[in-house]
Amino acid sequence: MKYMQYDQQSNGATAAVPVIRVWKLSKDYYLGRTVVPALSAVDLEIARGEFVAIMGPSGSGKSTLMNILGCLDRPTSGNYWLDGIPVGEMSAGELADVRNREIGFVFQNFNLLPWMTALANVQLPLVYAGVPTEQREQRALWALAMVGLASRAHHRPMELSGGQQQRVAIARALVNAPSLILADEPTGNLDSRTSMEILTILQRLNARGITVVLVTHEADIATYCCSRKVTFRDGRVMQDTVNVTPAMAQERLLRQLPTEGER
Ligand SMILES: Nc1ncnc2c1ncn2[C@@H]1O[C@H](COP(=O)(O)OP(=O)(O)OP(=O)(O)O)[C@@H](O)[C@H]1O
Ligand SMILES: [Mg+2]
Of ligand 1's atoms, which has the minimum distance to the CA of residue 232? Predict the structure, then answer.
């Protein structure tokens, strides 16, 4: 395995417009008179096709960054260009549209609606996108098949394991064929074997050209299985390294997760 400091030459993507480009990005939260600086002048570019792990201690600004990248929140200052388009200049309607079409979200606690079947949950983004009813089911079944859950389409979340629920959530993130998947600790509530299964799915999607940004506390995943690792501390990028030969989670799974001494 070969690691190097990230720079724009190392991933061979200099010519293309980055999917994500933020610079001097800051976010302050205001609690009464107290200012909480969550992000401080962050510069970050992510090229199409990268699989980026975001790491850092609790409170270092990872979720704040993901919410801004996902157009769920706006920065206090600085710039964010998504696919070459300045997000700050988009209207609320344009933002909602981009969010729905281009970005798939996966959260730690799955965020599935408990009273709906897997199929209905996966169809929801299509409802918001105004996709005609007859197409919705077909596309949702395709997305469930992509995560290996076609046979569980009519199960409700409580009838599924944690890993299966997260796969349904990934299918929901996928159903609009986004170019970017943002996953904020998607394996945080799962055991290590199930985490590797989820990672296998994310790597397969990445191999199909979807850019993946993954927040994780699992050093093993970030260091070995992603093409780049960006580490935050106190709202700043502390370290940015490229892994030229990321390991396939599937292979690690087959080897039953080596113990510490075997690495
Ligand atoms: N809505 C909010 N109002 C006020 N402060 C907030 C809010 N959201 C986050 N913060 C603060 O901003 C900082 C960054 O929080 P953030 O949730 O981005 O951290 P994180 O890196 O995702 O942490 P974790 O690993 O625990 O999820 C923290 O100091 C947090 O207390
Ligand atoms: Mg967080």
Answer: 21
Tens-place pLDDT, residues 115-158: 999 999 999 999 988 899 989 999 999 999 999 999 999 999 99
The three state secondary structure string of 184-253 is ECCCCCCCHHHHHHHHHHHHHHHHCCCEEEEECCCHHHHHHCCCEEEEEECCEEEEEEEECCCCCHHHHH
Supply the CATH number for residue 141's domain: 3.40.50.300
State the residue range of the domain holding 158.
Answer: 16-257
Counting from 1 in the atom list of ligand 1, the atom nearest the Cα of 27 is: 12
Domain assignment present for 4:
no
- In a domain, residue 26? The reply is yes
29 lines ligand 1 (CB under 6 A): yes
Q: What is the pTM of this model?
A: 0.90
Distance of CA 62 from the midpoint of ligand 2 (Å): 5
263 within a domain of the structure (yes/no): no
Question: Distance, CA 29 to ligand 1 centroid (Å)?
Answer: 9
In a domain, 8, yes or no: no
Asked whether 177 lines ligand 1 (CB < 6 A), one says: no
Ligand 2 is an ion; its neighbours by CB within 5 Å are 62-63
Query: What total of structural domains would you count in the chain?
Result: 1
